[in-house]
Amino acid sequence: MMILKTLSIIKPDAVKKGVSGNIISMFESNGFNIVAMKKIHLSKKQAEEFYKEHSARPFYGDLCDFMCSGPVIVQVLERENSIKANRDLMGATNPSESDNGTIRKMYGDSIDNNAVHGSDSEESANREISFFFSDLEIC
Ligand code: ADP
Ligand code: MG
């Protein structure tokens, strides 16, 4: 199994609720090495660009408004099989369908306010990491 990087975002709902520390702790206790991290407030344009693969979906406008409604914490996580491991730790997109013990079950309120984002493939991880971080910012 290869050591891979994945991009994680702690979304505005979880930052506002004050549970970002708990979520970061879950990454660390599940074997992820945090190799880059910053708190930023996305502009609407940046949110639209980040989620452009969803631009034709009916929820796209609300999703972009939500993602720029407050600061987010973005991280690059490294671990063996990190992309799938992070998706498993996050849980299903809709918190009501997430397994117990997952981040979305513990901290998500609804499908729109679901606490975290995680890359879904190596290709999207590479795009998403370089969207937020330069090589110099990754330890
Ligand atoms: P994931 O974040 O699990 O990878 P998607 O990439 O399919 O899920 O969708 C991106 C985000 O858009 C989701 O995290 C969620 O916040 C939102 N979203 C997805 N599907 C819906 C939906 N049917 N209604 C409202 N929001 C949605
Ligand atoms: Mg996705």
Automatic annotation (TrEMBL):
Gene3D superfamilies tied to this protein: Nucleoside diphosphate kinase-like domain
Requisite cofactors: Mg(2+)
Chain sites annotated for binding ATP: 11, 59, 87, 93, 104, 114
Pfam families named in the record: NDK (PF00334)
HAMAP family: NDP_kinase (MF_00451)
Function according to Swiss-Prot or TrEMBL: Major role in the synthesis of nucleoside triphosphates other than ATP. The ATP gamma phosphate is transferred to the NDP beta phosphate via a ping-pong mechanism, using a phosphorylated active-site intermediate.
Name of this chain's protein: Nucleoside diphosphate kinase
Organism this protein belongs to: Candidatus Cytomitobacter indipagum
